[in-house]
Design a protein that fits this description.
Blueprint: H1 3-23, H2 25-50, E1 52-53, E2 56-57, H3 60-94, H4 98-104, H5 106-119, H6 129-139, H7 145-153, H8 156-175, H9 179-185, H10 193-231, H11 236-249, H12 255-270, H13 277-311, H14 316-352, H15 357-362
Antiparallel strand pairs: 1-2
Length: about 375
């Protein structure tokens, strides 16, 4: 068979594989979530496997079952605690009259317009009120929250199947840490099994450290933001919602903290429209920005070096560019998945394309 025939077969095979992935995307999503949950729960399983009850080791299946129950307990408590607060916050924000809100900020808006017009090179009056009205309306448009939860309530059957499937798969991944790797190896030629197994083991170890670290980073950042904002005078329910959002969006390096800070400042303004802007709102915004600055300082010095240096092993500029590319292609979701995907890419490149100088330089820090 000539070279063109081989390329044609390869292209058809990739297309067919892509169609299979698309058709079974829901099942693949279940497996992906189960893999992440098994990564987060693996330290608990390992700890339980080392424990003994009356000198008898705990069976692996029991350790996996207890870990799975603990994971779901944490998630149930999380949703039971925070979802009502988020819904209530959304209702309050959706009831804000944007036009009245902008009118209450009329004086500071005029000062900003005057400042911009004074130093603008284009000349003319700059009208920021229309810009604020348009963007604030989109930010505070939470009226669809109730319809979203209504649609979720209408898909209880599908949700139950998803939860059961994820739980079932996660249990076996927790019980046998090599099950996922062994399953994937079945789809590669025997002559490539050793290399593929080495790649999958490296990916598993790196991503396990990454997701475990990320899980604790989200909790710690969200908790610190919540405590800090409560101390500086933000209402507790508002502080919790802002802290939750800041912790989750913080999984996007560099850009996530900026988004979290802007969200906190917007909520700070939107929930204090009935007080004097200069004497009360401005100090609150200043303290809010200070809280985010201190939290990010702690995160950058303590948390992120432990997470990224031990898992990604990549230059900060690499990570930043990868996140920008992923964001331009897939938005926020792409940014969140950028680092795991880049980690997988680098491990595969190191194993199979290490003869190229560019690849060697790109992957030299991967052990």
């Amino acid at each position: 068979m000539n070279g063109k025939g081989k390329y044609l077969i390869a292209a058809v095979g990739l297309l067919f594989l892509g169609l299979i992935f698309w058709y079974f995307s829901a099942i693949l999503a279940y497996i992906g979530i189960a893999v992440v949950l098994s990564f987060i729960g693996r330290p608990v399983v390992d700890f339980l496997n080392k424990a003994t009850i009356k000198k008898h080791p705990i069976p692996t299946s029991v350790s996996a079952g207890l870990t799975l129950a603990l994971l779901w307990l944490v998630m149930v408590v999380f949703f039971r605690t925070f979802i009502p607060m988020i819904v209530e916050e959304a209702k309050q924000l959706s009831n804000i009259d944007v036009q009245s809100a902008v009118r209450s900020l009329d004086e500071p808006i005029r000062n900003i317009e005057a400042f911009i017009s004074k130093y603008s090179t284009e000349g003319g009056d700059f009208k920021i009120q229309a810009v604020i009205t348009e963007n604030l309306s989109s930010v505070l448009k939470f009226s669809d929250i109730s319809s979203i939860f209504g649609s979720l309530a209408g898909t209880v059957g599908g949700l139950f199947i998803a939860l059961f499937s994820i739980s079932f798969i996660t249990f076996f991944f927790l019980k046998d840490s090599s099950l996922f790797v062994d399953s994937l190896v079945l789809f590669v030629p025997e002559k490539n099994e050793e290399g593929v197994r080495h790649v999958l083991d490296s990916i598993k170890n790196l991503l396990m450290r990454y997701f475990v670290g990320l899980f604790f980073e989200v909790i710690l950042v969200g908790t610190m933001v919540t405590i800090g904002l409560s101390i500086v005078g933000m209402g507790f329910s508002h502080a919790v919602v802002i802290g939750l959002f800041a912790g989750l969006i913080n999984v996007i390096p560099y850009i996530g903290p900026i988004i979290g800070t802007m969200f906190g400042l917007i909520i700070g303004i939107a929930t204090n429209l009935d007080v004097d802007f200069y004497t009360q709102v401005v100090p609150l915004l200043g303290y809010t920005a200070l809280v985010f600055f201190i939290v990010q300082l702690i995160d950058n010095i303590l948390f992120q070096p432990l997470i990224y240096s031990n898992s990604v092993n990549a230059h900060p500029l690499e990570i930043f560019l990868v996140i920008l590319f992923a964001g331009s292609m897939s938005g926020i979701l792409g940014m969140m998945l950028a680092i795991p995907a880049y980690t997988i890419f680098r491990v595969i490149a190191k194993e199979f394309f290490n003869k190229y100088r560019f690849v060697r330089k790109l992957t030299e820090k991967i052990k």
